[in-house]
Amino acid sequence: QVQLVESGGGFVQAGASLRLSCAASGRTFSSYTMGWFRQAPGKEREFVARISRSGISTYYADSVKGRFTISRDNAKNTVYLQMNSLKPEDTAVYYCAAALPAKDYNDWGQGTQVTVSS
To answer: CA-CA distance, 73 to 79, in Å (whole number)?
Structure first.
């Protein structure tokens, strides 16, 4: 099991940038594929981005492709989500999650609120 704590959320104007961080503790961080998800009010949680254990491979939801960048620093046990050109529709609680190989995302953080005003 790994414990995850997100930070970096906030209230910004459309077009601004934010960088989310997710600090992990517990078992070996580099053993986990890491993902970012978000949940807007009244909507289901949706996938945003994921990054492989080594950090070489990334994958994004179409809605954020070209604007968001996921990265990780295994030496610091941290995964990041750089969010540029933010839109009001990006407003949500953002969660990071960890998955072992061939497993579902079983470990989740508490979330960090991102609010983008128009």
So the answer is: 6
